[in-house]
User: Fold this.
Amino acid sequence: MKLFDQGIPVDIMTVLNGRDKRANFQEKLLQLYPNQTIIGAKLNIAGPIKNNSRISQFFQTQMAVFESLLAENALTFERKGDWSDAVTGPEYFYVVDQDPLTVKKLAVKFEEAFPARRLFDIDVHYLENNQERAVSRTELGLARRKCLICGRDAKTCGRARRHQVAELEQRTAELINNTLS
Assistant:
């Protein structure tokens, strides 16, 4: 079975609605936990299929590793949202009792530990002067994400639509299948 043979295709409006839902949920968490750091974890999956049993299995097994990494570093955390069945792709949300820079450093360490984890997008949010802020990789002095296909800046490739969806799906399937096999 090919990775993208199963799942419900989503259109751009569904993806945009999912982004709004995510932003609203993170904002709600920040209001409920203003002195804590919020983590939003999801996968960057190109194409219309964003979730199925295999993608969800990959996400959940790798997030268990991420939770272990948080625990090993003595971070107190609680999962506050589990959208592992979302048609727009699996997502988890956490409240963490630690400063946002430390949390982002661990998130990047996780994302860069091996190639398949480059599919993860772990955002770190916090309140500063009652304003929501996100910690970027560049704030930590790190390079921007690299494209899975060519190694250039990922955002530049995405905006320029430099690669075909089929090419991105093939690379994504290789990464996920190699991890789960």
